[in-house]
Specification:
- The chain is an alpha+beta fold.
- The protein has a single domain (39-201), classed as tt1808, chain A.
- Helix content is 27%, strand content 23%.
- It has six helices and ten strands, in the order αββαβββαββαβαββα.
- It has helices spanning 11-17, 40-59, 99-102, 122-136, 152-155, 196-201; strands at 25-28, 31-34, 64-65, 71-72, 85-89, 104-105, 111-117, 140-145, 162-169, 172-178.
- Strand 9 (162-169) and strand 10 (172-178) form a beta hairpin.
Length: 204
């Protein structure tokens, strides 16, 4: 089993080091982070969201795709994230300098929508990735907190399962929350027929 490097590394060193052992890793400001092992309920939520999004872009005949494995690299940071659902705009990949060799996008125009399904490292999704995706100019970012793990200032007290859709407006995310039978409003897919509860139920 590969051991995470103890020293700070850059993106190129991270890619060269990355082991093929089935364990997911991310790079956070030069630090290699081993991601939490996937759980069955979380994977069902990821698969459900990916399926619903795929149906939408296929129906609309948009040049989009969801890769199995890819990194998002903020251009001014030694970080590399592997989102739970990454919706790529295929028309822009020819302008993505890292794509061919490392399956990595570093420009917001290459990403139409990104989804993070919250786990125990919820601060990464709500703070770090939120800020980096915003700075990159990714137009739409979902935080799917189906297990109500996030901070109370986000999901209430008592905590409630919540889906956040963050829309980039004038360079800043506007964060809209959806719970229960509220229909999710997606700027990318205005005809999306999906409620927050349907996503929560996918974990059952």
């Amino acid at each position: 089993m590969a051991q995470a490097l103890s020293k700070l590394v850059n993106f190129d060193e991270f890619i060269k080091w990355y082991p093929n052992n089935g364990i997911p890793y991310e790079l956070h400001d030069g630090t290699i982070v081993e991601m939490a092992p996937p759980t069955g309920d979380r994977e069902k939520v990821v698969a459900f969201i990916a399926c619903k999004i795929t149906v939408e872009f296929d129906r609309m005949e948009l040049p989009y795709a969801i890769p199995k494995t890819a990194f998002v690299k903020p251009p001014e940071a030694e970080s590399a994230y592997s989102p739970d659902v990454l919706l790529l705009n295929l028309d822009n990949l020819n302008n993505a300098p890292l794509w061919q060799k490392t399956s990595t996008v570093s420009q917001g125009t290459s990403v139409s929508l990104v989804v993070e399904v919250v786990s125990t490292n919820w601060r990464d999704d709500y703070y770090k990735k939120y800020a980096d995706y915003e700075q990159m100019g990714i137009a739409e970012y979902w935080i799917a907190d189906y297990a109500a793990l996030g901070g109370r200032n986000f999901i209430g007290n008592p905590k409630q399962p919540t889906i956040f859709v963050c829309q980039l407006i004038d360079g800043e995310y506007q964060m809209n929350d959806f719970r229960g039978n509220n229909s999710i409003v997606s700027p990318t897919f205005p005809q999306l027929n999906l409620t927050a509860q349907q996503i929560f139920d996918a974990a059952l």
